[in-house]
Every structure is written in C-alpha cells, then in structure tokens.
TrEMBL record:
<dbReference type="GO" id="GO:0005524">
    <property type="term" value="F:ATP binding"/>
</dbReference>
<protein>
    <recommendedName>
        <fullName>Cytidylate kinase</fullName>
        <ecNumber>2.7.4.25</ecNumber>
    </recommendedName>
</protein>
<keyword id="KW-0418">Kinase</keyword>
<keyword id="KW-0963">Cytoplasm</keyword>
<dbReference type="InterPro" id="IPR011994">
    <property type="entry name" value="Cytidylate_kinase_dom"/>
</dbReference>
<dbReference type="GO" id="GO:0015949">
    <property type="term" value="P:nucleobase-containing small molecule interconversion"/>
</dbReference>
<dbReference type="GO" id="GO:0005829">
    <property type="term" value="C:cytosol"/>
</dbReference>
<dbReference type="InterPro" id="IPR027417">
    <property type="entry name" value="P-loop_NTPase"/>
</dbReference>
<comment type="similarity">
    <text>Belongs to the cytidylate kinase family. Type 1 subfamily.</text>
</comment>
<keyword id="KW-0808">Transferase</keyword>
<dbReference type="GO" id="GO:0036431">
    <property type="term" value="F:dCMP kinase activity"/>
</dbReference>
<dbReference type="GO" id="GO:0006220">
    <property type="term" value="P:pyrimidine nucleotide metabolic process"/>
</dbReference>
<keyword id="KW-0067">ATP-binding</keyword>
<dbReference type="GO" id="GO:0036430">
    <property type="term" value="F:CMP kinase activity"/>
</dbReference>
<feature type="binding site">
    <location>
        <begin position="9"/>
        <end position="17"/>
    </location>
    <ligand>
        <name>ATP</name>
    </ligand>
</feature>
<dbReference type="InterPro" id="IPR003136">
    <property type="entry name" value="Cytidylate_kin"/>
</dbReference>
<keyword id="KW-0547">Nucleotide-binding</keyword>
Length: 217
C-alpha cells in the first residue's frame, strides 16, 4: 500500500518548504499541486487564452506532461519552476485554478501520481478532495502579515522587485478567492491536524509533523 501525506493551507503558510523537508525525511515524492495550476496559467497566458476560453485551455492541459524532479516542476521536458513563481503568474493563477474542468483534469493527474509513488502533496484541496483517504492530513495556517513577510523575503532573495503592501493585498485577495470559489474551495478537512505556523520556525513545524507521522496518527 502507498503512503500519502496531505498538506493544505493558504498561500505563504510554508506548505512547500515544510513538505519538501518532511518528504526527504520519510522518502516521499513531493508533489506541489499549486505548481501544476501555475503551469496551466503560464501556458494559457503564453497562448493569450482568457479563463473563459475553457475548451482551448482544456486542450492545452491535455498536451501538458508534468512531473517533478528534485521538487521542481518539469513541463513537457522543461524545468519551468522559475517561470511559474513570478508575481505575474501569482496574480492570474486563481482565475485558471477556479475552472472546474481544469480541476477535474489536474486532480486525476495528482491521484495517478499517488497510486504510483509514496507522496507528500501540498495544495488547497488535498485532504478534502485529491487524497481524501490520505494516511496523514495537515492544515497549515499563519497570519496574512506573516505570510506576506515570508513571500517578500523570498522574492527579495531572488532579486525580484516587489512591495510588501502589494504582496499583503495580493495574499488577502487570493485567500478570499481560494476560500470562496464554487469548486473545491480551500477548507480544512474534518480529520486534518491544524498547525498555526505564525510564531514557529521551519524546524519547529517539521518536528511537529514528523512526530505525528512517527506516532502513526
Ligand atoms: O500554492 P500556490 O500559491 O502555488 O497555488 C497557486 C494557485 O493554485 C492558488 O491560487 C491556489 C491554487 N491551487 C488550488 O486551487 N488547488 C491546489 N490543490 C493547489 C493550488
């Protein structure tokens, strides 16, 4: 039987950093589902497709081969990790992630990965939809200000020009869209363990999750 760990939570709660570290500790493949939605937004933008052009977008998604190597998303043979994490893509991605037809296609790809590999998967609907029967489910939160602060530092480290106030506003807007969309909105699964990371450092969160996994619940 395959092992699966689901990590959900809002943007900037530390999901990907934590999932990568826990994945290394337990030898699980890290699947960053947000990266997959970002890749759809990237391809749609490259082809000048607005979120209303659902058939055309689905046809593009059909031709997208996605897998992960060293935690990076490889799209049709190309490492697109840097291209999908720009502020431009962050600003448009939720418009594409809210398309039900796109979600159906990506959820299927994500489940297929979980049948083949032991996975740790992060996103918004992993514990509630994609891996409803995951062995472990965690829901990470942090205040919007702390999450904006983390994104600001991360973009600064990559020499991407940005303003803290703008990032905070984007995070608040994205939270609203992610929790209010009609299909698979962000919400904590009833059986997920909630961890507020506002005043925890990365190691503290990893240790907390690791202890639950070791205990087997
Ligand atoms: O985690 P992230 O910021 O890279 O996610 C990018 C977008 O994709 C964000 O608007 C939420 C959406 N998303 C989603 O709807 N479902 C997922 N499983 C993962 C991400």
């Amino acid at each position: 039987m395959k092992i699966s760990v689901a990590i959900d939570g809002p943007a900037g709660a530390g999901k990907s950093t934590i999932a990568k570290l826990v994945g290394k500790e337990y030898n699980l493949m890290y699947i960053n589902t947000g990266a997959m939605y970002r890749a759809v937004a990237l391809k749609a933008a490259e082809n000048n497709l607005s979120p209303e052009q659902i058939n055309e977008i689905c046809s593009i998604v059909n031709d997208m081969e996605m897998h992960f190597e060293n935690d990076d998303l490889i799209l049709n043979g190309e490492n697109v990790q840097d291209q999908i994490t720009t502020p431009e893509i962050s600003n448009i991605v939720s418009n594409y992630a809210s398309i039900p037809e796109v979600r159906t296609m990506l959820v299927k790809l994500q489940r297929d990965m979980s049948y083949k590999f032991n996975v740790i998967m992060d996103g918004r609907d992993i514990g509630t939809v994609v891996l409803e029967d995951a062995n472990f489910k965690f829901f990470l939160t942090a205040s919007p200000e702390e999450r904006a602060n983390r994104r600001f530092k991360e973009l600064n480290n990559r020499n991407i020009e940005c303003s803290y106030d703008q990032i905070l506003q984007d995070i608040i807007e994205r939270d609203y869209k992610d929790t209010h969309r009609a299909t698979d909105p962000l919400r904590k699964a009833d059986d997920a363990i909630e961890i507020d990371t506002t005043s925890l450092d990365i190691n503290g969160v990893v240790r907390t999750i690791s202890e639950y996994i070791k205990k087997g619940k």
